[in-house]
Amino acid sequence: MNFVMKAALGGATKDVGKMLGGEEEKDPEAEKEKEEERQEALRQQEEERKAKYAKMEAEREKVRQGIRDKYGLKKREEVEAEAQAAMEQASEGSMTRPKKAVPAGCGDEEEEEEGIMDTVMKYLPGPLQDMLKK
Asked: What angle do helix axes 126-133 and 109-123 make, rounded to 10 degrees?
Protein backbone atom coordinates (compact mmCIF):
# COMPACT_ATOMS: atom_id res chain seq x y z
CA MET A 1 0.00 0.00 0.00
CA ASN A 2 2.90 2.35 0.68
CA PHE A 3 4.10 1.86 -2.87
CA VAL A 4 0.72 2.92 -4.30
CA MET A 5 0.57 5.97 -2.01
CA LYS A 6 4.10 7.06 -2.95
CA ALA A 7 3.39 6.66 -6.62
CA ALA A 8 0.12 8.59 -6.45
CA LEU A 9 1.21 11.44 -4.21
CA GLY A 10 4.89 11.72 -4.89
CA GLY A 11 6.80 13.29 -1.96
CA ALA A 12 3.71 14.25 0.05
CA THR A 13 3.52 10.87 1.85
CA LYS A 14 4.80 12.23 5.15
CA ASP A 15 1.73 14.39 5.64
CA VAL A 16 -0.64 11.63 4.53
CA GLY A 17 0.88 9.26 7.10
CA LYS A 18 0.15 11.75 9.85
CA MET A 19 -3.43 12.16 8.66
CA LEU A 20 -3.98 8.42 8.71
CA GLY A 21 -2.77 8.17 12.34
CA GLY A 22 0.83 7.29 11.72
CA GLU A 23 3.79 8.47 13.73
CA GLU A 24 3.78 12.04 14.84
CA GLU A 25 6.82 14.11 15.54
CA LYS A 26 7.92 13.52 19.11
CA ASP A 27 8.50 16.39 21.46
CA PRO A 28 11.42 15.57 23.80
CA GLU A 29 10.10 17.81 26.56
CA ALA A 30 6.67 16.20 26.44
CA GLU A 31 8.24 12.75 26.61
CA LYS A 32 10.34 13.84 29.54
CA GLU A 33 7.26 15.11 31.38
CA LYS A 34 5.36 11.89 30.70
CA GLU A 35 8.30 9.82 31.97
CA GLU A 36 8.52 11.95 35.14
CA GLU A 37 4.78 11.56 35.72
CA ARG A 38 5.08 7.80 35.21
CA GLN A 39 8.00 7.59 37.66
CA GLU A 40 6.11 9.67 40.22
CA ALA A 41 3.06 7.41 39.85
CA LEU A 42 5.27 4.34 40.37
CA ARG A 43 6.83 5.86 43.49
CA GLN A 44 3.43 6.71 44.87
CA GLN A 45 2.12 3.20 44.20
CA GLU A 46 5.18 1.72 45.90
CA GLU A 47 4.67 3.92 48.96
CA GLU A 48 1.00 2.93 49.14
CA ARG A 49 1.93 -0.74 48.85
CA LYS A 50 4.52 -0.43 51.63
CA ALA A 51 2.06 1.42 53.88
CA LYS A 52 -0.58 -1.25 53.27
CA TYR A 53 1.94 -4.00 54.03
CA ALA A 54 3.08 -2.27 57.23
CA LYS A 55 -0.53 -1.91 58.36
CA MET A 56 -1.27 -5.59 57.67
CA GLU A 57 1.90 -6.66 59.48
CA ALA A 58 0.97 -4.53 62.50
CA GLU A 59 -2.46 -6.19 62.61
CA ARG A 60 -0.85 -9.63 62.39
CA GLU A 61 1.57 -8.81 65.20
CA LYS A 62 -1.36 -7.64 67.32
CA VAL A 63 -3.11 -10.99 66.77
CA ARG A 64 0.13 -12.89 67.50
CA GLN A 65 0.63 -10.97 70.74
CA GLY A 66 -2.94 -11.76 71.76
CA ILE A 67 -2.25 -15.46 71.23
CA ARG A 68 1.04 -15.22 73.16
CA ASP A 69 -0.72 -13.53 76.06
CA LYS A 70 -3.56 -16.05 76.02
CA TYR A 71 -1.31 -19.11 76.12
CA GLY A 72 1.64 -17.64 78.03
CA LEU A 73 4.11 -17.99 75.17
CA LYS A 74 7.23 -15.92 74.59
CA LYS A 75 8.37 -14.31 71.37
CA ARG A 76 10.76 -16.37 69.28
CA GLU A 77 13.44 -13.69 69.65
CA GLU A 78 13.12 -13.77 73.44
CA VAL A 79 13.37 -17.56 73.54
CA GLU A 80 16.43 -17.52 71.28
CA ALA A 81 18.04 -14.77 73.37
CA GLU A 82 17.47 -16.76 76.57
CA ALA A 83 18.92 -19.90 74.97
CA GLN A 84 21.95 -17.96 73.76
CA ALA A 85 22.47 -16.45 77.21
CA ALA A 86 22.19 -19.88 78.83
CA MET A 87 24.78 -21.30 76.43
CA GLU A 88 27.16 -18.42 77.11
CA GLN A 89 26.67 -18.77 80.84
CA ALA A 90 27.29 -22.52 80.72
CA SER A 91 30.44 -22.13 78.64
CA GLU A 92 31.77 -19.44 80.96
CA GLY A 93 31.09 -21.60 84.01
CA SER A 94 32.86 -24.65 82.66
CA MET A 95 36.11 -22.74 82.29
CA THR A 96 36.11 -20.98 85.64
CA ARG A 97 34.19 -23.39 87.86
CA PRO A 98 36.31 -25.21 90.47
CA LYS A 99 36.41 -28.97 90.22
CA LYS A 100 34.00 -30.89 92.36
CA ALA A 101 35.28 -33.29 94.97
CA VAL A 102 35.45 -36.88 93.73
CA PRO A 103 32.88 -39.03 95.53
CA ALA A 104 34.22 -41.93 97.57
CA GLY A 105 34.76 -45.08 95.55
CA CYS A 106 34.94 -43.37 92.15
CA GLY A 107 38.63 -42.67 91.90
CA ASP A 108 40.26 -45.62 93.71
CA GLU A 109 40.32 -48.92 91.82
CA GLU A 110 41.11 -50.99 94.92
CA GLU A 111 38.12 -49.70 96.77
CA GLU A 112 36.00 -50.29 93.71
CA GLU A 113 37.06 -53.94 93.49
CA GLU A 114 36.34 -54.45 97.14
CA GLY A 115 32.96 -52.88 96.66
CA ILE A 116 32.21 -55.26 93.83
CA MET A 117 33.29 -58.26 95.88
CA ASP A 118 31.13 -57.15 98.78
CA THR A 119 28.17 -56.79 96.44
CA VAL A 120 28.70 -60.27 95.00
CA MET A 121 29.08 -61.75 98.47
CA LYS A 122 25.71 -60.37 99.51
CA TYR A 123 23.96 -62.39 96.84
CA LEU A 124 25.77 -65.67 97.46
CA PRO A 125 24.36 -68.27 99.85
CA GLY A 126 25.96 -68.56 103.29
CA PRO A 127 28.26 -71.61 102.68
CA LEU A 128 29.70 -70.07 99.51
CA GLN A 129 30.36 -66.79 101.31
CA ASP A 130 32.35 -68.66 103.95
CA MET A 131 34.41 -70.47 101.29
CA LEU A 132 35.27 -67.23 99.45
CA LYS A 133 36.18 -65.36 102.65
CA LYS A 134 38.89 -67.91 103.48
From this structure: 150
